[in-house]
Amino acid sequence: MFYIPEELQKLKQWTNTYVDSKTPFPKINMPDTWLSYDVAYDNVARGWKDYLGFIFNDTNIIGIDLDQGFDNDGFLSPMAVDIINRCNSFTEYSKHGRGVHIYIKGVLPLNGYNNESAGIEMYKSKRYFVVTGNCLIKKDINTNQEVIDYILDKYFKDNPKLNKHAIQSKTIYTPEMRYQDGKLHVVYPIIKQGCRNISLASLAGQLYVKGVDRLVIKSKLLEVNQQACKPPLDDNEIDIIVNSITGYRRENK
Are residues 14 and 119 in the same domain? Predict the structure, then answer.
């Protein structure tokens, strides 16, 4: 059954994307060009675009992405059962059918969280979901801060924590300095899948508390992402990390 809550339809936070591309049109960083639901839907209905996309924009609507919501036998995973039952909110199948998207209302301290090893992501802004309208349960978007806090504590407990008023540097990932051929070289150790977000957030935090400009931090993270991350994160993920880190006041020392 195709269903999208009217609450989402009323927001001008829509985009489209193609089946073979992760890049949405309009882009996330161009809010003045975002579409109404009717226009985005019409683009798909006419065959001009392949998918609808909803852009999260810090409007208290939070998206939870469970990448592997179902096992190989088609049963919901224990994590999916836990989170879906607790949220009790509008939930749809993802476009590939193996995952689920949950929409719930509340507050997140950061723009986004990504626990790659567990296969769960959680976003309030700077990100979009491909919306299938293939409803699994519930037609309303529930408000439940207690559940959001539970998910953060249980599934993102080991992620870097940021103080609400100031950011502290957490040295989890640090470049190595090597002297070779009479010169000092900066070497970035390989970052394996499952450690990419936390390592790049660590590096961004170390640069930020030293007073480094936001654009310079982004440039450095893009460089390290390509050199060290196996495989590299999408550029959108780098934007999320940079925006999260630089969105807090530096600690005065």
Answer: yes
CA–centroid distance for 28 within its chain: 12
- Global pTM? 0.66
Instruction: Give the model's confidence band at 171: pLDDT under 50 very low, under 70 low, under 90 confident, else very high.
Output: low
Query: Cα–Cα distance between 105 and 145 in angstroms, integer?
Result: 7
**Into how many domains does the chain fold?**
2
Please indicate whether residue 128 or residue 179 has the higher confidence score (pLDDT).
Answer: 128
Cβ atoms of 137 and 85 within 8 Å: the answer is no
**Residue 74 CA: distances (Å) to CA of 22, 90, 99, 179:** 25, 20, 11, 54
Supply the range of the domain harboring residue 231.
Answer: 176-246
| Residue 75 burial (C-beta neighbours within 10 Å; 0-12, 13-18, 19+) | exposed
Q: Which is more confidently placed, 111 or 40?
A: 40
